[in-house]
Amino acid sequence: MPKPLQRIREAAIDGRTQNIYYRQTQLELLNDTLVQNSEIIQQAIIHDSCNNEVEARIEYSLALLSLREQYTGLSAAKSLEEEYAIAQGRDAPDRREGVGIVYVVPTAYTMFYSVIAPLGAAIAAGNCVVLELENTLREVPNLLGRLLKGALDGDTFAIASSRVEDAHFLAGCVQVRQDGLKEPPRFTQLASTPQARVVAVVDRTANLEE
């Protein structure tokens, strides 16, 4: 098993990401990195998708909004109360813990959002994350690879440049698949099909041809 994946497994076993202050710090570092590089990120989105500036700004803003929602959902006081409830002889029926490792496979469409949204949710829930970003000439995945490696803890976050073939490792992960590919159910717990039909609301004043 590659060393990065071994480190991820060890961190998951240690429960390193269960500490709420650790999770908050990781989300803060991620958010700060994305804010500091907002212009270059949006230009990369425009280059890869041929979208205009407004569309790139929307994708960027929605990704950061998802991070903010995950961050504001974390309460240190509540987490500590739940953690010590049993030691104090009280039940903690609402206590939740991460599954351990989340393996994220983004879609090429809205690549930036499809990486940041599940990544933020996985971190907030107390998980280690392996993100699959294949080597490509596209700007967004290459840029994200550099930024995320610099922002997040290398012991709890790793990037795989190709599909992880270790069946034992994958069996211990919850996979978030957004590429529409089908695999055995035991290896795919959360999947979305980007080719599926979606609802579109069109205002009567819209230019239908455009």
TrEMBL record:
Coiled-coil ranges from the UniProt annotation: none
Gene3D superfamilies with a match to the protein in the record: Aldehyde Dehydrogenase, Chain A, domain 1
InterPro entries linked to this entry: Ald_DH/histidinol_DH (IPR016161), Ald_DH_N (IPR016162)
Domain of life assignment: Eukaryota
PANTHER family in UniProt: ALDEHYDE DEHYDROGENASE B-RELATED (PTHR43111)
Protein name in the entry: Aldehyde dehydrogenase domain-containing protein
Species of origin: Cryomyces antarcticus
